[in-house]
Write a structure and sequence with these properties.
Layout lengths: L4 H10 L1 H7 L16 E6 L8 H14 L2 E7 L2 E9 L6 H14 L3 E6 L36 H5 L8 E6 L19 E2 L19 H10 L16 E6 L7 H9 L7 E4 L1 E3 L11 H13 L7 E5 L14 H4 L3 E7 L17 E4 L9 E4 L9 E5 L2 H18 L5 H11 L11 E2 L5 E2 L10 H9 L8 E4 L3 E6 L7 E7 L1 H5 L5 E12 L6 E6 L5 E5 L11 E8 L9 E9 L9 E12 L3 H13 L4 H4 L20 H31 L4 E8 L2 E8 L5 H10 L19 E11 L2 E10 L6 E3 L2 E2 L2 E2 L2 E3 L12
Parallel strand pairs: 5-7, 5-8, 6-7, 8-10, 10-11, 11-12
Antiparallel strand pairs: 1-3, 1-4, 2-3, 9-30, 13-14, 15-16, 17-25, 18-25, 19-24, 20-23, 20-25, 21-22, 21-24, 26-27, 28-29, 30-33, 31-32
The structure holds 2-acetamido-2-deoxy-beta-D-glucopyranose (7 copies) and calcium ion (CA) (4 copies).
The site of one calcium ion has 7 residues, from loops.
Length: about 775
């Protein structure tokens, strides 16, 4: 019964005009003349007393009486959350507000409270006059019911991505076409190919630079303008970064990933390394640093959301675990399914796939209807957008809807919500496996289909996950031969309670495995990872076309399949060789395990799953119910490229800190030993801090010296030179991790540089792969670091 308190209340206010007629004489100072009931949502400390429900109920009762409010009980299924209503007639609203504020602010057991604003709602059904809207089956599918993103109900609740900016990192965006222009954000846009702020695509020989415009239309095409189509998040702003129309370098990619990152919330990237079934490549060191920097500092510190397509190499047996963008923990990796929910011929599988959404299939299947450029052969509208290129922007649009209802979701919250809400469905190609936390995953479909309704409802009640905890094993040197199938090389590493104590990690998010292997034919290798629960991930799939003789050099595979599971226990990898006996045996040299997760216990995960399911009725989306959101940080937007400088600055700070620390200890040690006749002077001069001893004073000065060391000024970053080693294959950088605006965590991360390769855009036209290559210079200038 209690569960419907809010929806019922809302019903009352839907009928408020009637109410108005009847109550014009109430004499309220309310401008509308309507007597509004004051209500507060109050969250009590769940650890109060023994934490039992009855005790919290009793506490709620006592608290409500103390401030003269009526306790209306638990809000829906949000345990610890109570609704208090003002019933007294004596006190004025302002007095009540003041009193409530004074008492709740001071009370230890009140986690937070907020006065509930009343939402005026009028239900409207959507009749768009856009001529192609009826053909946009991915938005509303009448031919195959259920095979759409279930977004119309979200729009009806006035959730359209308002206040959110999505940027399409691609070959430009023609922002002048009718369906883009009103939503275009010039502030978020840039052209890295020509180095100007205008991302207008260039008409090319093949009428091919329409790709970015098509992706932009899927996200934010303007509705009800009698033109073409409607975007998933048509209330959002859409920007373009033109970067794929010409040679692409690591530094350009890095700039793109952080461009205007306080304006752009979501980066939609429908491109990646070559999908030829023999490439192993990903972002190089600057691109990696930029992704990392983006999740730390982007979007006021909540983290930029990077949505990447899983790739179109299906027909070449390609696998997205060999794609560093898909593997990255910072990206939301999205695959495609056709209108029937099946895996299309071009789709790739991998253990790091988070979820899938719709795109084209083979000839009988409909493609994605979206905007197009109107240059050259374009008409401003197309029915033929295809490939995983078309899937990623749909996902980016759905994330925009989530960020509207809860702007302070962190980059990890977004991934969590996808894991918690994606839906499993039967498909003959997908091999689903239930993991230790109860989540279903398949290498083909990730955690399942994205569903805009489920995503936004969950986002609305989602409180941030605890800060990111990580564990890195030592580099495990094996140097063992890899046997031919059916024999396997089995390796294992135990992660103990003590190992996890430092970070506080209890449950997993991503699991990464970095391997170095020599092998005469890389595509013959198969690598499986088993988490402690027994959940398996095929991280290294065999690839027929991959004849590369160099094996893997510190390649990091990742899996999301152990999401939510207990982190502690034995991790095993099984390696085998499916090739012929005539080839030389490969050697498994080293590996290293990296776990990412949080302090959530398995019970916390289960509890959150329950909450997410309970929120699916729409009662919170409907209401003006809102959880408090921290404001985020003011992070200035710098025009110039700052990754290298930031990195350097952090390095210097850390270096300075280390110098300071060791000095402090030296001094402490020294002070505890020296005779009373000495004195200390610490000064920073030039590039080094000098510790000198002054002779001659005695007695009281000793104390002074001790004080001096404590108030030692931190060396200015310009005053300390930090020696940092860089070698050919291994470029280290230090990053300041900040995953929630309130939490700061330092971590040293050494990333390796993969071999230079080519880049391709995922674009399938008429179901043929017309993959276009963009050469990028692999020879990155390491000097940019220094
Ligand atoms: C609902 O909340 C939004 C923002 O949280 C606010 O702008 C709006 O005025 C509220 N609506 C009503 C009817 O109070
Ligand atoms: C679209 O525009 C028509 C008038 O052209 C209007 O009747 C209709 O309500 C509009 N639909 C929406 C969803 O705004
Ligand atoms: C789709 O959205 C509607 C609300 O518009 C909701 O009632 C329904 O349960 C959703 N379906 C799924 C499968 O999530
Ligand atoms: C939707 O939100 C916009 C912006 O806040 C507001 O102007 C409009 O009235 C809302 N529409 C409904 C039906 O609530
Ligand atoms: C996972 O699949 C199992 C078996 O089909 C099903 O019982 C369970 O509800 C699924 N879990 C989720 C979270 O969908
Ligand atoms: C891990 O622990 C198991 C028993 O708990 C033990 O048999 C095994 O040798 C350990 N493995 C390693 C690599 O330490
Ligand atoms: C780093 O900062 C300096 C000034 O502090 C500036 O001159 C230089 O251009 C910056 N380098 C980069 C790559 O932005
Ligand atoms: Ca330009
Ligand atoms: Ca339109
Ligand atoms: Ca690929
Ligand atoms: Ca990823």
């Amino acid at each position: 019964m209690r569960r419907y308190v809010i929806p019922l209340m809302c019903l009352c206010f839907v009928t408020w005009p009637l109410f108005l007629l009847l109550s014009t004489h109430t004499g309220s100072n309310d401008a509308t003349g309507l007597v509004e009931e004051l209500t507060w949502a109050v969250r009590l400390d769940p650890s109060h007393g023994s934490g039992r429900r009855e005790e919290l109920d009793a506490l709620a009762e006592v608290l409500s009486h103390a401030v003269g409010l009526e306790n209306r009980g638990v809000i829906g299924e949000l345990k610890d959350h109570y609704l208090f209503a003002h019933i007294g007639h004596g006190q004025s609203k302002e007095n009540t507000r003041r009193k409530v504020h004074a008492i709740f602010t001071q009370h230890d057991s009140v986690r937070w409270f907020s006065e509930q604003k009343l939402l005026k709602r009028s239900k409207r059904s959507l009749h768009f006059n856009d001529p192609k809207y009826p053909q946009q089956w991915h938005l509303h599918n009448s031919r195959s019911p259920g095979m759409d993103i279930n977004v119309t109900g979200v729009w009806e609740r006035n959730v359209t991505g308002r206040g959110v900016t999505v940027v399409v990192v691609d070959d430009g965006v023609q922002y002048t076409i009718q369906d883009i222009q009103p939503n275009y954000s010039p502030e978020g846009s840039y052209d890295l190919n020509s180095n100007d702020p205008d991302p207008m695509p260039r008409p090319d020989g093949y009428s091919d630079n329409h790709h970015g415009t098509r992706c932009a239309g899927e996200i934010a095409a303007v509705p009800n303008n009698s033109f073409c189509a409607v975007g998933v998040a048509y209330g959002s702003r859409i920007a373009g970064i033109r970067v794929l129309d010409g040679p692409l370098t690591d530094s350009m990619e890095a700039i793109a990933f952080n461009k205007h990152y306080q304006i752009n919330d979501i980066y939609s990237c429908s491109w990646g390394p070559d999908d030829d079934g023999k490439t192993v490549d990903g972002p190089h060191q600057l691109g990696k640093a930029a992704l990392q920097h983006g999740v730390i500092a982007g979007r006021k510190g909540f983290g930029s959301i990077f949505v990447v397509a899983s790739g179109n190499g299906g027909q070449y047996d390609d696998n997205c675990n060999y794609d560093g963008y898909a593997n990255s923990i910072y990206t939301v990796t999205i695959g495609a399914v056709n209108e029937a929910g099946e895996m299309p011929f071009y789709a790739e599988e991998c253990a790091s796939m988070l979820a899938v959404t719709f795109s084209s299939g083979d000839k009988q299947m409909r493609s994605i209807v979206t905007s197009d450029w109107d240059l050259q052969k374009g008409t401003g509208c197309t029915e033929g957008h295809t490939g995983t290129s078309a899937a990623a922007p749909i996902a980016a649009g759905m994330v925009a809807l989530m960020l509207q209802v809860r702007p302070c979701l962190t980059w990890r919250d977004v991934q969590h919500i996808i894991v918690f809400t994606a839906t499993k469905y039967e498909d003959h190609q997908a091999a689903w496996k239930t993991n230790g936390a109860g989540f279903n995953h398949s290498h083909q479909h990730g955690f399942g289909l994205l569903n805009a309704w489920r995503l936004t409802n969950a986002a609305k009640v989602w409180e941030s996950v605890p800060y990111l905890a990580s564990y890195v094993s030592p580099v495990l040197k094996e140097n063992k031969n890899i046997p031919l199938v059916p024999h396997v090389l089995e390796l294992s590493w135990n992660v103990t309670t003590a190992d996890l104590l430092l970070s506080g990690m209890r449950t997993l998010e991503h699991v990464g495995v970095t391997v170095s292997i020599t092998h005469p034919r890389r595509g013959n290798l198969q690598i499986q990872l088993f988490c402690p629960s027994g959940m398996s991930s095929l991280i290294g799939a065999t690839r027929k076309l991959d004849a590369d003789p160099n094996g893997f050099t510190e390649w990091t595979f990742s899996t999301v399949r152990c999401w939510g599971e207990n982190a502690e226990g034995a991790y095993r990898i099984l390696v085998t060789d499916v090739g012929e006996e005539t080839l030389k045996r490969g050697v498994f040299q080293t590996w290293q395990l990296t776990l990412y997760g949080s302090s959530w216990t398995p019970e916390d995960v289960a509890e959150r799953r329950r909450l997410v399911e309970e929120s699916q009725g729409g009662q919170f989306l409907n209401d003006n119910f809102s959880l408090p959101c921290p404001p985020g940080l003011e992070i200035s937007e710098q025009d110039s490229y700052t990754i290298t400088n930031n990195t350097l600055r952090t390095l210097m700070l850390l270096g300075c800190f280390a110098v300071f620390w060791s000095l402090y200890y030296t001094v402490e040690l020294y002070l505890s030993r020296i005779s009373s006749s000495s004195d200390l002077d610490l000064s920073c001069e030039g590039s080094s801090c000098i510790l000198s001893r002054r002779q001659g004073s005695s007695g009281p000065r000793q104390l002074e010296a001790g004080l001096e060391t404590e108030s030692l000024p931190l060396c200015g970053s310009n005053d300390v030179a930090v020696d940092y080693e860089e070698d050919e294959d291994n470029v280290g950088h230090v990053a300041l991790y900040r995953h929630q605006p309130s939490t700061t965590q330092f971590r040293l991360m050494v990333e390796n540089r993969p071999k230079p390769q080519n880049n391709a855009i995922f674009d399938l036209q008429d179901n043929e792969d017309t993959v276009r290559h963009d050469t990028r210079d692999g020879d990155t200038n390491l000097n940019e670091y220094g």
